[in-house]
Amino acid sequence: MYQTGKGAGYGAIGICLLIIFSILQPIYTTLNKDKISAQRLKVDISQLQSRINTYEVEIMNLRQKTEGGKNPQLLRQLKGKPEKLSELKSHLKLKEIEFKAINDS
To answer: Which CATH class for the 33-104 domain?
Structure first.
C-alpha cells in the first residue's frame, strides 16, 4: 500500500523551481534597471536633502553667533559653508533631474 517515487518527484520539482528562479533573477534585474536606479536616486535625494537642511541650520546658527565679528574661530568655520551648501544644492538638482528622466521613460 505504499507508493514510492512521490517524494523524489516533489524533490526534483523543487530543485527545478530553484534552478528556474535562479536563472530568471538576473533577467528580472536587467529588466528593472530603471526601477532599481530610481529607488537608489530616491535614497540619494533624501540623503542630500537632509544634509542640506543640516548645513542650512549650521550656517544660520553660525551667522547668529558671529554677527558682531567677535569670534574668529566661528568666522573661519562659516567661511566655506555657503559654498558647500550651494554645491550640495546643485548636486541635488542634478539628481532630481536624473530621477525625473528615469520616471518619464
So the answer is: mainly alpha
